[in-house]
């Protein structure tokens, strides 16, 4: 079976590669084709048998390329990586289907329920948990997606053609398929792979809205319907809520303001309302039932009677008449919320809905009538799924989080207090004095802001954003905005400052603090802040204002960040500190009588918390999930995990299954023991020491990093609307985590995903480490993620990047330290897994990575050469474009590199 699957994957790669070759020969010329083919063959031969094929042959083919040859070759290999990914994704879908049918996967609904059954957990407990659950992927605009939307669309079109052929079976003509595929590949070949201009926030809003509209609006109702069927729970409420940061995340992005936030809601609302209009129109075409031939409920009869539909043809068709009124009201709602007329105007005027509840109520009248008069055949139909969509997405589409840095809040509050004559220098107060002052202001009704006074531009901007948030809540309802995340939280006053600012725009009422619709949520992301998170949250929940909001909501949300903690202290230390902080935060919320709701700020790369979401959830400390979890999805991860409906539903199910198993599963504390915890703490401390000794304490390391990776060139990629650094400083501390991780991925070192582990385990008992990996999902996931990222690394290529460092002695010294730790870490991982090679226990993943690497390595070689030329003073724009194209291709080949 595995062999057959491998053969099919290989056949599809060969088919797409052959068609690309034909296109390159026809479009780019025979010389380019011959060069690409020679490089491809040499690279494949070297990777298949390094002992018999010297890398010098490959390097010789790539040496002394003209600029045009280098760009053409890079374009060809980048295009091939994109097409190979299509075949790989299809193989993954087939494998997932086969394993699900065989009951082999615990990350599928059937597999998870089977495991819970075996543990003695009955279906009532599962239904009860899901009825109170919150499972929320949150789409962000973090810039790690290098592919243009045009490229993603072409790749999706190729996949859709192959999928269609599978569905049509024998009716699919091989000749017709090849013709259709070649057409798409011609377009892909002739499409610029890199962006010509930078993104603005509206571009990011449009991209996220497109994902929501094309994928989530359809998948969320389908997923809920499946779980309702499996659990025999037709009334199971939606537990999935889609979130977004795009338009509300101001942390480090000066381009987000009140107008942008309002535009985000208009864009999302326009998309979701047009979807509802299309569905209502389609239902109108379908539900042609005549009152002369069927009974209807009195409620439906009344709804139909209230319609101003004047068509004689529909006079005896109550469902159509009711839908005409619903359509007219939706059309008016579109005008009010989306700022323009509906694409297809209604035939008569009707009042706009005052909220999604009224819309859902009208739909429920139709559905109830169909069920009562015709039975269960209408239980899970188009109308039922529209009701679910309206329940999940409302008129706002996705819940928008607000996020800002605590330093900004401090400055704004200080400005308001100073101008109001309350406190001349708020920033100079110690923490207790700040809390006393903030509590006093939150207890009284008097506003601080005066429209007649002068304020700093930053103050006016932040106030305008919160005013826009208040308007959005009024227009779209309480699900539009639920949380205000505070980056760089290190004190309880950081939370109270948010409530004070919400009070200024009428969202926090001193007379009824529990009614505040937005909860302030701390973000703990550095190692220091994670270690201080317990006392910080204790102090927050000791304050009446924050305690009232948490008690009314029943939960206190806390966000924990994977990226900056990794950059601070190593992959292992980050994971351990997040684990321990989660346990400590759970104790705090339990003592306060509220539930903990963790929001995991994960990226795509292992160095930013990436890896399997299912495994990550299972590795959480006991009690910290309890049916509620939020997790960021960003950059290339969105397209990889949610690029098409089948894959999207599989990933949403995996998150749901992980949540169920972590909440109800047989392990009482996630495999954790005091002994394991003591060992992990010791390993974490040693890993952090080794990591910081290299990154923060080694003379010349910053110079090495900036020369031996394409960090400077990545800044030209134009993949996001916010700057790569928080300041003009070149210090590692001030660099954002995404370019930090992305740079090491491009240079094939992958340092943030493994460095420090090898040193940490020196002298440890290998049997104990193996026992930990076997019994403890947290530690097992750490090792598996390191193993995966190390399999994508290549220290020989990394040495070539080190050759870009102007000082050879510096290059040799630091590269030597990295190589030693690499060898120690690889030996440690193999000792724990008991295998001879990396990924020895994951043969499918090993084969996929091995098949991919021969097509990535030439891109690395060309990238190095073009970087060398540019840094030597060649300012030809084509050199820069070639570098960006190579970066694009390497990222496509590595997949989760950001």
Automatic annotation (TrEMBL):
One of its GO terms (molecular function) is phosphoenolpyruvate carboxylase activity. Its cofactor is Mg(2+). SUPFAM superfamilies: Phosphoenolpyruvate/pyruvate domain. The active site is at residues 142, 567. Keywords: Carbon dioxide fixation, Lyase, Magnesium. It is an enzyme of class 4 (lyase). Pfam families: PEPcase. It comes from the Bacteria. Its EC number is 4.1.1.31. It catalyses: oxaloacetate + phosphate = phosphoenolpyruvate + hydrogencarbonate. Forms oxaloacetate, a four-carbon dicarboxylic acid source for the tricarboxylic acid cycle. Homotetramer. Belongs to the PEPCase type 1 family. HAMAP family: PEPcase_type1. PANTHER family: PHOSPHOENOLPYRUVATE CARBOXYLASE. This is Phosphoenolpyruvate carboxylase. It comes from Brevundimonas pondensis. The lineage of its organism: Bacteria, Pseudomonadati, Pseudomonadota, Alphaproteobacteria, Caulobacterales.
């Amino acid at each position: 079976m595995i062999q057959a699957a491998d053969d099919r994957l290989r056949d599809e790669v060969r088919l797409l590669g052959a068609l690309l070759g034909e296109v390159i020969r026809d479009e780019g010329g025979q010389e380019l084709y011959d060069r690409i083919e020679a490089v491809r063959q040499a690279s494949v031969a070297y990777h298949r048998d390094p002992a018999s094929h010297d890398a010098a042959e490959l390097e010789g083919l790539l040496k002394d390329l003209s600029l045009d040859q280098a760009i053409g070759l890079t374009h060809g290999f980048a295009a091939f990586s994109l097409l190979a990914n299509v075949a790989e994704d299809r193989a993954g879908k087939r494998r997932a289907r086969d394993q699900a049918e065989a009951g082999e996967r615990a990350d599928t609904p059937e597999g998870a329920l089977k495991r819970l059954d075996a543990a003695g957990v009955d279906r009532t407990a599962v239904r009860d948990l899901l009825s109170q659950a919150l499972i929320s992927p949150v789409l962000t605009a973090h810039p790690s997606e290098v592919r243009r939307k045009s490229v993603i669309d072409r790749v999706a079109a190729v996949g859709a053609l192959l999928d269609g052929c599978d569905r049509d079976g024998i009716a699919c003509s091989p000749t017709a398929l090849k013709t259709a595929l070649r057409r798409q590949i011609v377009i892909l070949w002739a499409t610029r792979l890199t962006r010509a201009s930078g993104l603005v926030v509206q571009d990011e809003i449009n991209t996220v809205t497109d994902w929501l509209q094309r994928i989530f609006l359809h998948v969320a109702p389908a997923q809920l319907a499946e779980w309702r069927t499996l659990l025999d729970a037709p009334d199971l409420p939606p537990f999935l809520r889609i979130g977004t940061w795009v338009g509300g995340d101001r942390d480090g992005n000066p381009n987000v303001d009140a107008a942008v936030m309002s535009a985000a809601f208009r864009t999302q609302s326009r998309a979701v309302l047009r979807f509802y209009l299309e569905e209502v129109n389609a239902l109108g075409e379908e539900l042609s039932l005549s009152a002369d031939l069927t009974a209807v409920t009195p409620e439906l009869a009344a709804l139909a009677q209230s319609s101003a539909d004047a068509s004689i043809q529909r006079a005896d068709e109550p469902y159509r008449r009711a839908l005409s009124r619903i359509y007219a009201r939706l059309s008016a709602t579109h005008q009010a919320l989306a700022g323009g007329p509906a694409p297809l105007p209604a035939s008569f005027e009707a009042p706009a809905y005052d909220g999604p509840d009224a819309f859902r109520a009208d739909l429920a009248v139709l559905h109830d009538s169909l069920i009562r008069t015709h039975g269960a055949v209408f239980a899970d139909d188009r109308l039922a799924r529209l009701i679910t969509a309206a329940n999940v997405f409302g008129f706002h589409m996705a819940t928008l989080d607000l996020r800002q840095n605590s330093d900004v809040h401090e400055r704004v509050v200080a400005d308001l207090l100073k101008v109001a004559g309350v406190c001349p220098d708020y920033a100079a107060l110690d923490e207790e004095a700040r809390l006393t002052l903030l509590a006093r202001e939150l207890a009284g009704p008097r506003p601080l802001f005066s429209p007649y006074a002068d304020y700093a531009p930053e103050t006016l901007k932040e106030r305008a954003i919160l005013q826009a948030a208040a308007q959005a809540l009024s227009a779209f309802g309480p699900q539009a905005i639920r949380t205000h995340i505070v980056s760089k939280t290190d004190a309880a006053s950081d939370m109270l400052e948010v409530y004070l600012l919400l009070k200024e725009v009428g969202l926090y009422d001193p007379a009824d603090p529990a009614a505040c619709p937005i909860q302030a949520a701390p973000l703990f992301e550095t190692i220091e802040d994670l270690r201080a998170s317990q006392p910080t949250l204790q102090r927050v929940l000791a304050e009446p204002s924050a305690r009232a909001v948490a008690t009314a909501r029943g939960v206190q949300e806390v966000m924990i960040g994977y990226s900056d903690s990794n950059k601070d202290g190593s992959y292992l230390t980050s994971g351990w500190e997040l684990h321990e902080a989660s346990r400590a935060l759970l104790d705090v919320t339990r003592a306060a009588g509220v539930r903990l709701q963790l929001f995991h700020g994960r990226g795509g790369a292992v160095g930013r918390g990436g890896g399997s979401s299912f495994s990550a959830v299972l590795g959480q400390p006991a009690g910290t999930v309890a049916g509620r979890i939020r997790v960021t999805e960003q950059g290339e991860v969105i397209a990889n995990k949610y690029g098409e409906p089948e894959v999207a539903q599989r990933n949403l199910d995996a998150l749901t299954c992980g949540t169920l198993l972590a909440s109800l599963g047989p392990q009482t504390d996630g495999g954790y023991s005091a002994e394991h915890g003591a060992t992990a703490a010791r390993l974490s401390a040693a890993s952090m020491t080794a990591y910081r000794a290299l990154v923060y304490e080694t003379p010349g390391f910053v110079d090495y990093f900036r020369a031996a990776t394409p960090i400077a060139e990545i800044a030209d990629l134009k993949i996001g609307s916010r700057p790569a650094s928080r300041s003009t400083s070149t210090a590692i501390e001030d660099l954002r985590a995404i370019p930090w991780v992305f740079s090491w991925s491009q240079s094939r070192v992958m340092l943030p995903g493994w460095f420090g582990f090898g040193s940490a385990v020196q002298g440890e008992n290998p049997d104990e480490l193996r026992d930990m990996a076997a019994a403890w999902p947290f530690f097992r996931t750490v090792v598996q993620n390191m193993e995966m990222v190390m399999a994508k690394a290549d220290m020989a290529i990394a040495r070539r990047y080190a050759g870009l460092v102007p000082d050879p002695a510096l290059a040799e010294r630091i590269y030597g330290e990295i190589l030693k730790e690499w060898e120690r870490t690889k030996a440690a991982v193999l000792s724990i897994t008991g295998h001879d090679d990396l990924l020895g226990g994951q043969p499918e993943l090993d084969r996929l990575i091995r098949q991919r690497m021969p097509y990535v390595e030439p891109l690395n070689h060309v990238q190095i050469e073009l970087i060398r030329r540019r840094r030597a003073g060649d300012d030809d724009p084509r050199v820069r474009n070639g570098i960006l194209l190579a970066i694009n291709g390497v990222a496509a080949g590595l997949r989760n590199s950001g």
